[in-house]
Each structure stands twice: as C-alpha cells, then as structure tokens.
Amino acid sequence: MRTAKIVPLVTSLRSRLSQLPVWTARAYSTKYPQEIQLDGQSYKTDEWTNVPPYILELTKRQLHQNPNHPIGILRDLIQSNFKDLGYTFYNNFKPAVTTVENFDILGFPQDHPGRSKSDTYYLNKTHLLRTHTSAHEHECFLDCKTPGYFITADVYRRDEIDRTHYPAFHQMEGARIWSKDTPNFEEQLVKDIESIPKTNIIVEDPVRDAPTHPGNPKQDYMTEKQAQLISIHLKKTIEFLVHNVFETARESAKLAGSTEPYLNEPLKVRWVEAYFPWTSPSFEIEVWWKGEWLECCGSGIVNQQVLLNAGLTDDKLGWAFGIGLDRIAMLLFGIPDIRLFWSLDERFSLQFQQGKIATFVPYSKYPGIDRDISFWLPGDSVLHENDVMEYVRSHAGDLAESVVLIDEFVHPKTGKKSQCYRINYQSMDRSLTRDEINVIHSKVENDLVDNFDVSIR
Ligand code: PHE
C-alpha cells in the first residue's frame, strides 16, 4: 500500500522518479476521504472507491432538468410526443445506486466488464454512480400506475476522452407492461400497435416477422405470437420517437440555412439484434444520418425475473429500451463537442430556450495544444486506458479535448510494453498558455508515475 506523502506540485520528474518506491498495486484509497457525502447520504470509502471529486461535482448539474439546456429541451421534446400515450415520466432519481440495482437485479453476470473499476465509478463496494437508467427499472415497474414509463437521468461511465465521449451523459429509459390475462390479449396488442402514431420512416428489419431464435430466444412464459407482437410494439414506439427527433433535427438544420443533401433524404433506420443481460430477445436501432449508421438505442423484451424481482405478478410482460440523449442533442443543436453541454459560459447557455431547437453558433474556436506522454509499463501492470483518461481529466478537467493511444509496442528483448498517448488540451472558452498546460501535463505524468509503476521515456 502506498504511503501518503506531500509533494510540491511541480517537481522535476527525474528527481521524483529516483525517490519512488516500487509498487504495482493500485492505491486508490489513499486519495479519498473516509466518507463521501452525496445527496444527503454518507458513503464510507473503501478499496472500491474510485469516484474523483470533479465527477461528484457533475452530479449537481442535472442538465436534463434545465428547461433551457439542450439536454432538457430534448427531454421535453420527447416527453411531449409521448404525453397522451399512457406513460409516467420520472426525472428526479439521484445518481447513487447499489450494485444490486445497477447489476444484480438485471442479471449481469459477476464477470461482466461493466462491473469493473476500470469502467464504473464506485462510491464504495456496494454503491456506485449508475451506469445506465435501467438501474431504476425495478422501482418504476413497482411504482408506475400507467401502462408505461420514461426515466431520464444523468449516468456515469469511465470512458475515453474525445468530442463525443464524456464521463457523464444522459439516458432516457422507456418501458411498457401488459398483463397476459387481458381479455383477447393478442387482439389488444394489435390494437395497441395500431394506436402508435404512424411515421414514413424507411425501416430495414430482417427479423420483424420472426424476432426470436435460439441465439436471441423467446421467453418460455409467452407465446411466439406474443413475443412477435410485443417486439413490434417496441420497435414502432422507438421508430416514432426517432422519427420525431430526427425530423426536428432536419427542420432546425434547414431553418439554420443548411442545404446539405442528407436533409432531403427520407429518414432510414435499421434494426440489428443485440444482447442485454435482462432482455430477450434484444434489439438495437441504428439511424442513417449524414452518411453513417448511428447506434441509437438498446432494447428488448424484459426478462420475467426482472419483473418478478420488482414485485409484479407472473402474468406481466413487456418491453424496455434505453436511448442516449447527448449524441442526439449534439446533432439536433449542431453542437460540435460534448464538453460544451457542461460549459458555464453564458455565450453557450444564452443560446438555448425552452421548446426551441436552435442551431449552436460557435462563439470562437480556440487553438489546442498537443502533448505526448510515453512510458514503459511494468510487467504486471494493471494500467487501463481509462485510468490514463481519468488522470488527465482529474488535472485538466474540461481542458482535455481528446486523449488517444497513438503508439503501443512490446520491447523484443525485455518484453516490456511501451505506450504513447497524445493529449490535446483545448478550451471551449479561452486561449490556453503553454505554461499552464506544462503545469497540468506534469501533474498527469507525476500521477501516472505515482500510482502505477510506469517509467516515463
Ligand atoms: N441500459 C442499456 C444501455 O445502457 C440500454 C437498454 C435499456 C437495453 C433497456 C435494453 C433495455 O446500453
């Protein structure tokens, strides 16, 4: 275990290196207070704790609740499209959840990568920042008095750094339940499908008529026909959602004066099969937008065990989906970098107003500064790419525009691995000086040396 020591902020790396003890284990716990306070609760930290203070700060922002923020405007837009269709809207869930809610109840296997400390922010061994809105499915199934519900919330994942990834983002979960005991149940399902507003979207779906097979099976407690009808209801609901959002994106781009050819093409989506621990069969929708397929939303028929875990009776069945809001809001509002959502600069925030899809007008593009960092990893290193991302973010905050692993090789004689990351530092709001970047960059280097046994090359 690493001992705490006080080091001046900027020391020469060489002198630091010579003083360092050799260790290979990660030593997170030394950096965290004994208790973390969040939303009125206190969490005792332990060897699982890995949520840095700047991430805890983000939990206070609640961008989806701000009616004048692009994320809040998008949430409103989707809610307004579904307002009379039998859904309850939940927007107030706090971000700390248990591992039971986020994983166990949903049937995540023990070795699922989502559970690892390199992917997820843990408050401690039992509590984490939710990695998806599905963590609240169970309480909503129990609480909800309408056939369906939507949950919108901020979610957190340790992730790479680039213009479309940020450790905090937003998801909207949708779900819908029926009872098999409904008189003429299958006819009712057909009626419910017919009541979903029609769209003129072009749909590619190779498995619409036969959505289940051994690789993506039907659950035993429903018939083939029921699985097919529920899948169609799910897919048409998502197609309606996607249609509304992307048609709005198209209109706003045209209003902003864009004449790009994609704006006149009909909207095209395709369904691909997917796998989630708590749905079967499972699907994903991709939207053809600006010449590429955009992954949009995972979904499926909810496993009966999840419904039973939530306290529902065994006649219940239904679907769920989860859609990421940030990438879509970037398209809708023409926002080039996901960090802008978190900007407190009025030149950003004053551009958006409740109910309006305005195209973002960049106030300036400040130049970035590239810095490389190359090091040898010790033989038994547990350094994960996301750890490097985390150290960069901890010191650079939103000045980290991107971090890319640009080179990696293994020395033929020593067997040691070398990695080189390129960090682009860039501010959305101002010009950066070389001096301030040097200070930040050496903190990142020092931290990597301190916490992992790397030797800077
Ligand atoms: N929670 C999943 C995700 O984050 C999406 C999902 C929601 C999939 C509901 C199936 C059902 O990717």
Note down, in words, how this protein is organized.
It catalyses: tRNA(Phe) + L-phenylalanine + ATP = L-phenylalanyl-tRNA(Phe) + AMP + diphosphate + H(+). This is Phenylalanine--tRNA ligase, mitochondrial. Is responsible for the charging of tRNA(Phe) with phenylalanine in mitochondrial translation. The chain has 457 residues and is an alpha+beta fold. It has 2 domains: 41-350, Bira Bifunctional Protein, Domain 2 (BirA Bifunctional Protein, domain 2, 2-Layer Sandwich); 369-456, 2-Layer Sandwich (Alpha-Beta Plaits), CATH 3.30.70.380. Helices cover 28% and strands 25% of the residues. It has 12 helices and 16 strands. The strands form 4 sheets. The chain has an 8-stranded mixed β-sheet with strand order 3-6-7-12-11-10-9-8, sandwiched between helices. Strands 14-15-13-16 form a 4-stranded antiparallel β-sheet, covered by helices on one side. Helix 7 (224-255) packs parallel to helix 9. It is globular and about 70 Å long. The structure holds phenylalanine (PHE).
